[in-house]
Amino acid sequence: MRVLVVNAGSSNLKLRLLGHDDEVLAERDVPVEAGQFDGAAAASFVRDVGGGAEAVGHRVVHGGARFSGPVELDARVVTELEALASLAPLHQAAALAGIELIGGLLPRVPAVASFDTAFHATLPPAASTYAVPEEWRSRLGVRRFGFHGLSHAYASRRAAAILGRPPLGTLVVTCHLGSGASVAAVSGGRSVDTTMGFTPLEGLVMATRSGSVDPGLVLWLVQEAGLEVSEVARALEHGSGLLSLAGTADMAEVERAVDAGDPSARTALDVYVHRLRGAVAAMAAAMGGLDAVAFTGGVGENSARVRAEVAAGLGFLGLELDLDLNARPVSDSDVSRQDAAVRVLVLRAREDLEIAGEVRALLG
């Protein structure tokens, strides 16, 4: 089955037409800003290649409690996804716009939604439950969902394959580091903990998102500092993270500024790495052990410095890098020292393969 994969992220809309053997037949990336993408550019690509698609697979970030696996799209499903838009404002709007656009261009081609939250449906209660009033949890559905599940699922299986071990017997911490960033503990192929929660704002420092902050700070900003709720929301989503600390949301630019002696950039990188190290250690603790740490996503794949600085603080867990391999990794490779107890892997992010696989499994 040839599948047109539509992957709406926070920074771009990735369009891939995958062939019967998952070969990439055509591809295009369209920039996304504030949940909006260039519809004309996306439509032009779909018109050019859409005739070869036998199915469409859409990445949808938030499936809430309702969707724990892929689902064929119809008007009712779209309505339910629209209701979740406020929980993932950087992503859900672009995904819904993509569904509408491509549904109009390819009305007779079946379309499937694959959810970033679905992989984390296996989180145990200890990891998914917030210690908040019971009414919030039962009536409002407040819980930790987790995100980037499509990437974490693929990376954990790919890591096991590189190690030559079955997924069921492998303990992997997967680090998806892109514009958005999260870490997951994958034990035996199942997600047992992760850093993102009710929304993709929780957890690590990201490109423009703050990651976890004291909820009391948010209350203080509104109640005492007089900021509007909308102003705080915009700042936490669009004006925080690396952008607020270094003046740029691009990790490559941050690293160049560090090399030039910029103290703000050095602080930004230190904060980023500090949070990431702590998250990796916490995920290992959640599994009671660790076989490998896998880095994927734009920063995970391309920043040798981030990988090296994270590993340097986690030697007590058994991470030891081969600095030469780490500096020049080939696609999907082990960059550990030969005798390291825990392997460090660099993996290409392939959410498109995960989505295509779910589409084929659902539609048969």
Explained architecture:
This protein is of the alpha/beta class and 364 residues long. 41% of the residues lie in helices and 19% in strands. The chain has helices at residues 39-49, 75-82, 92-105, 125-128, 134-139, 149-163, 215-223, 229-238, 241-246, 251-259, 263-287, 297-302, 304-312, 323-327, 351-363; strands at residues 3-8, 12-18, 24-33, 36-37, 55-60, 71-72, 111-115, 171-177, 181-187, 190-194, 292-296, 333-334, 343-346. Strands 4-3-2-1-5-7-6 form a 7-stranded mixed β-sheet, sandwiched between helices. It has a 6-stranded mixed β-sheet with strand order 10-9-8-11-13-12, with helices on both faces. Strand 3 (24-33) and strand 4 (36-37) form a beta hairpin. The chain starts with a strand and ends with a helix.
Shape: globular
CATH superfamily of the largest domain: ATPase, nucleotide binding domain
Strand order of the largest sheet: 4-3-2-1-5-7-6
The structural class is: alpha/beta
Largest sheet: 7 strands, mixed
Number of strands: 13
CATH topology of the largest domain: Nucleotidyltransferase, domain 5
Helix content: 40-55%
- Please give the CATH architecture of the largest domain: 2-Layer Sandwich
Low-confidence stretches: none
Q: Mind telling me the CATH class of the largest domain?
A: Alpha Beta
How big is the Rg? 20 Å
Instruction: Provide mean pLDDT, rounded.
Output: 95
Strand content: 15-25%
Order of helices and strands: EEEEHEEHHEHHHEEEHHHHHEHHHEEH
How many domains? The number is 2
Helix count from the secondary structure assignment? 15
End-to-end span in angstroms? Answer: 9 Å
